[in-house]
Amino acid sequence: MQKLVPAVFNDLPHLDFLRAGACRVLSFSWYNFDYPMKIVLLFLSCFFGSLTARAQDTTYVPAEPPISVARMAIFYYDINWTDEQWAELAGRQVELIYLIDEVGEPFLQASRGLPDDAVRDSMTIATSRLPYFTPARRGEFFEESVYSVQFSFPSYRPAAGNDLLLMSRFLLPVSREVLAEEYVKDYNAVFIDFNLNYLSHLGTPGSYLKGGGGFDMYIGGMWKPRWGAGLAMGTEFNGKKRSFPDDPIPGREGAASGVWIGGLLNHNLKMTDRGLFSIRGELAYGVLNAANRLDPDEDEGWVQYRGVHTGIHVNYALRFSRFTPNPGLVNGHVTARYSAINFTGGLRYRHYGDKEGTGAHWFLGIGYRLGRDDFRKR
Question: In this predicted structure, what is the pLDDT of residue 281?
């Protein structure tokens, strides 16, 4: 067999004409073309360059829904679920995985967090009502893609003050008869009290002030079944046995008045079907108008004692009206309004420094309560 030995280009004399032609081609310059030909060549190079660039465009743009995830979730909330299905879905987080075809129509292909196949079938039907997506695109061509969303079903949650916030589309009214038969009173939720009192001062203030009357108001709520708080305020009027030492006109009697405003701490001791017995503590800022600066009275100001107001008293609310249920049944609970008579009494102490108004007084009162109680299923 003949052995082939590689030849060197310079050792091929019969290719001299190729070398000469190549040199002539390489020596041919852009400047050898006239101006019209240059324009034609430049146009052709740009045209074929754009075709090449388009042929290489593979940019991928994923599918996008035309609405937010929250609005998509409403399509599934709006399904006519049974009570049992709502109970299973409440608070549950689900993930839905769609196949988006070339025209943007979504198809439910997979899911996580759904309790059973019946729920899955209902959500598959609801998916057909979703608006079309913007389909995925690779370059200039649309293609199938996968898209997933996550959301949670609404549920009931406790709110401040042990009230319950209803997160549902329905309000379930409860009649008085059903309330009496199927529910039991759980705790007192809200109260508004208006009381008229008779009061009598003790010690040093009692040597200056006669017995008098007062008006108190309490607005409060319960953050636990037995504990609550609220706003407390009141005013009182007393005749005088003698004038205070600070009176600019000694010897006159006249009358004294006072006002106080502060906070209330309430503790329920015993609750029955018709009554509620509680003990209360007060802490407030108090003012005693000891005397007018002039006689006869003119709008020239008062001799005032100012200081800390404290008090402790008991209150018994006796319901005299029927319960009126409020709309809304939440987690087996319902609230109902009622009216009651208040019987109250206690001891209060005011500290006005070294002034003669510093001291205690006892009081007894009667009033009206507008209240709201919470009921639960028996």
Answer: 95
A 10 A CB-CB count for 67 gives 12
- Asked whether residue 17 carries a pLDDT value surpassing 50, the answer given is no
What is the largest distance, in Å, between two alpha-carbon atoms of the chain? 153
What gap in Å lies between CA 337 and CA 325, rounded to an integer? 6
Asked if 289 and 303 count as a contact pair (C-beta separation under 8 A), the reply is yes
Q: How far is CA 248 from CA 57, 254, 291, 294, 304, in A?
A: 99, 13, 8, 7, 12
Residue in this structure with the two tokens 């360059």, named with its chain if needed: 49
Q: Which residue shows structure tokens 């007084």?
A: 361
CA distance 254 to 87: 69
Average pLDDT value for the chain: 80
**For the chain, what are the domain ranges?**
69-152, 176-377
Sign of CA dihedral 45, 48, 50, 55: negative
263-288 as b/e, with b when 16 or more CB fall inside 10 Å?
A: ebbbebeebeeeebebebbbebebbb
Judge if the upstream peptide bond of residue 296 is cis by omega within 30 degrees of 0. yes
Q: How far is CA 241 from CA 312, 350, 355, 362, in A?
A: 26, 19, 17, 18
DSSP 250: T
Strand order in the sheet with 136-138: 60-61, 136-138, 141-143
Nearest to 100 by CA among 73, 66, 77: 66
Supply angle C-alpha 235, 239, 242, rounded to 5.
130
Assign 378 a pLDDT band (cuts: 50, 70, 90). confident
Residue 361: per-residue pLDDT: 93
Query: What digits encode the pLDDT tens for the residues 155-184?
Result: 754 443 343 333 333 445 566 777 777 777
State the architecture of 176-377 in CATH terms. Answer: Beta Barrel (2.40)
* CA dist., res. 167 & res. 347, Å (int): 45
